[in-house]
Amino acid sequence: MNYWLLKSEPNVYSFDKLKSEKKGIWDGVRNYQARNNLKAMKKGDLAFFYHSNIGKEIVGIVKIIKESYPDSTSDDLRWVVVEVEPFYTFKKPISLQQIKSDAILQNIGLIKQSRLSVMTIKPEEFDYILAFDN
DNA sequence: GCCAACGTTGGC
DNA sequence: GCCAACGTTGGC
Fold first, then answer.
1. Which of A21, A51, A103, A104 is most buried, judged by most C-beta within 10 A?
2. What is the pLDDT of residues A40-86, one digit of tens each?
């Protein structure tokens, strides 16, 4: 079981939209490192859903329900998608500011590699962030 | 709107 | 294979 973080601009594709649609295809990734992370995802893995640009906060968790397959929004076979469904909604979203100001989370990918849209989250980071919500 | 931090492209 | 120029992402 691995943990991930997926970024989306909420004005393009928000967590609320995913919830209203019950499941979603994570398409449009055009970066090798992000693509490699998509390929490494297994059914049942969990991922934080982060709103970039607007909100700048982790708003929920999604579950990977279908492993990677070619992205139909590109005719280039290098790119892939996964399918996700809503798994958990944070009672109170975790802001980037909160993550940045936490000594434990200084090495999280969200801070270290701010431009990457699909990244891994260490199990201890996942548990630690989830505990904020209780 | 600006800029830092990348990633990509293309000339050599 | 190097590197300059350019494009993109995302925080501020």
1. A51
2. 999 999 999 999 999 999 999 999 999 999 999 888 888 999 999 99
Q: Where are the domains of chain A?
A: 3-133
Task: Round the average pLDDT of chain A to a whole number and report it.
Answer: 95
Using a 7 A cutoff on CB, list residues near strand C: A 7, 9, 30, 52-53, 56, 96-97, 100, 110, 114-117
**Would you say the C-beta of A115 is within 7 Å of strand B?**
yes
Tell whether pTM > 0.90: yes
Backbone angles phi, psi at A61, to 5 degrees: -130, 140
